[in-house]
């Protein structure tokens, strides 16, 4: 049986990655092809991740990109590696029904590294990030970029990276937003069409049993990424601290801080941000979710159990909205606005530009008072979002389904 080969994400230490992977699984199950999924990632999958997914989650058995690319070229010439794991990967690529890259945000000026302005660095990035798609193209396999956010692309080499990626790596690309589609279409080769499709994690749902009469829980999805983009005189952490006290004083709810991204080797992560926000005098009603010990399913169940979510992370917003939980968002990229628009929730978005604690508290008061009405709106729109994904899945999984993405 030919495989549907997934890659581009790491299933642990970032809630967004497994959220997308679970969305793919749910869509594939809807189409009856979930038994064909296989996912490769560079690090060895953790036991928690392995237990969280019903499809094979395998480690790429090559230590470097040049070795993997070289092995792909040799395999194309009929020269096979001795290692059975390496042969399995290359054979999965050669026979793949489709190869799908799952990474969530690309070609963005804001996320360039120190030397990202140099074209050779961008070319190396294409080779490193899209290796399996590039090898797949050697064998004539269809290669799809799943829905992602693109841009802003004001810098020349960001646009060049996008153009070369579309030419070399993919036969089809999807954008999560109309603005991302516009940015991508402006730089990709003539005749290359990028279709719009909501983030795949919107299709993932979990079951939660709420205890009647339980003290309300307000979840706050904290973010170290937004601190890097912050444009306000009041610091992000100070704004969230004041908001927490206000939430408790006005609603009596408990608060749980939910880190989303917590890489092992990084100067910043959401767990550190949560620790900076948590203060001694709030510990009796504020806790930090132990996300390092939780599966992605357990984190989403926690989000779904909250009365409302206040989010500074994209996939925490997706997790809440796709579960019918009202979300108040503090965002830094246009991807937040278009996500909220899918659920008719644009009014509950605050920008990182000029945000103050008072603005957050004023919006929260209106948000809390409207939460039941918004919950009904979200539930109605949720069905439409799922329908869009079901129609678009026919293009994501070529040869399956009947519709076409927009």
Helix-strand layout with pairing:
Blueprint: E1 4-7, H1 16-31, E2 37-41, H2 47-52, E3 57-59, H3 65-76, H4 84-94, E4 98-101, E5 105-106, H5 119-129, H6 131-138, E6 143-150, H7 156-168, E7 172-175, H8 178-185, E8 194-196, E9 217-221, H9 225-229, H10 236-251, E10 254-257, H11 270-277, E11 286-288, H12 296-305, E12 308-311, H13 314-321, E13 327-331, H14 334-342, E14 349-351, H15 357-369, H16 371-396
Helix pairs in contact: 3-6, 5-7, 10-15, 13-14
Notes on the protein architecture:
The protein has 406 residues and is α/β, with parallel strands linked by helices. It has 2 domains: 201 residues, Rossmann fold (3-Layer(aba) Sandwich), CATH 3.40.50; 168 residues, Rossmann fold (3-Layer(aba) Sandwich). It contains 16 helices and 14 strands. Strands 1, 2, 3, 4, 5, 6, 7 and 8 form an 8-stranded parallel beta sheet that branches. Helix 3 runs parallel beside helix 6 and helix 10 packs parallel to helix 15. The protein is globular.
Measured between the Cα atoms of the first and last residue, the distance is 30 Å
Helices and strands, in N-to-C order? EHEHEHHEEHHEHEHEEHHEHEHEHEHEHH
**CATH architect. name of the largest domain:** 3-Layer(aba) Sandwich
Biggest sheet details: 8 strands, parallel
| Rg, alpha carbons | 21 Å
| Mean pLDDT across all amino acids | 93
The geometry reads as: globular
Query: What structural category arises from helix and sheet content?
Result: alpha/beta
What is the assigned CATH homologous superfamily of the largest domain? Glycogen Phosphorylase B
Strand fraction: 5-15%
Q: Work out the number of β strands.
A: 14
Number of helical elements: 16
CATH fold naming of the largest domain: Rossmann fold
CATH class division of the largest domain: Alpha Beta
Count of structural domains:
2
Give the fraction of residues assigned to helices: 40-55%
């Amino acid at each position: 049986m030919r495989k549907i080969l997934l890659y581009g994400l790491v299933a642990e230490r970032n809630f967004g990655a497994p959220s997308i992977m679970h969305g793919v699984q749910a869509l594939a199950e809807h189409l009856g092809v979930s038994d064909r999924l296989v996912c490769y990632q560079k690090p060895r999958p953790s036991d928690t991740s392995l237990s969280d997914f019903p499809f094979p989650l395998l480690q790429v058995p090559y230590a470097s990109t040049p070795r993997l690319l070289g092995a792909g070229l040799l395999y194309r010439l009929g020269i096979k590696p001795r290692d059975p794991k390496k042969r399995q990967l290359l054979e999965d690529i050669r026979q793949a029904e489709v190869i799908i890259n799952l990474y969530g945000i690309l070609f963005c000026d804001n996320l360039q590294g120190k030397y990202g302005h140099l074209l050779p660095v961008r070319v190396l990035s294409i080779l490193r990030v899209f290796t399996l798609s590039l090898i797949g193209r050697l064998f004539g396999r269809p290669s799809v970029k799943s829905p992602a956010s693109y841009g802003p692309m004001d810098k020349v080499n960001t646009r060049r990276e996008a153009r070369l990626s579309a030419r070399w790596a993919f036969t089809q690309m999807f954008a999560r937003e109309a603005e991302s589609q516009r940015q991508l279409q402006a730089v990709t080769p003539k005749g290359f069409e990028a279709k719009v499709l909501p983030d795949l994690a919107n299709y993932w749902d979990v079951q939660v049993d709420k205890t009647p009469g339980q003290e309300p829980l307000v979840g706050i999805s904290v973010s170290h990424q937004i601190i890097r983009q912050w444009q306000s005189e009041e610091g992000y952490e100070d704004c969230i601290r004041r908001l927490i006290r206000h939430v408790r004083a006005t609603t009596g709810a408990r608060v749980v801080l939910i880190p989303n991204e917590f890489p092992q080797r990084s100067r910043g992560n959401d767990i550190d941000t949560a620790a900076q926000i948590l203060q001694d005098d709030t510990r009796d009603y504020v806790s930090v979710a132990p996300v390092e010990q939780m599966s992605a399913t357990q984190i989403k169940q926690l989000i779904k159990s909250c009365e409302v979510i206040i989010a500074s992370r994209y996939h925490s917003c997706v997790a809440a909205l796709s579960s019918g939980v009202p979300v108040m968002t503090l965002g830094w990229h246009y991807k937040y606005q278009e996500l909220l628009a899918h659920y008719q929730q644009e009014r509950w978005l605050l920008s990182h530009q000029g945000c103050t604690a008072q603005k957050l508290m004023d919006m929260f008061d209106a948000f809390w008072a409207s939460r039941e009405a918004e919950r009904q709106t979200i539930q109605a729109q949720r069905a439409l979002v799922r329908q869009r994904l079901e129609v678009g899945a026919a293009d994501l999984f070529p040869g399956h389904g009947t519709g076409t993405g927009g």
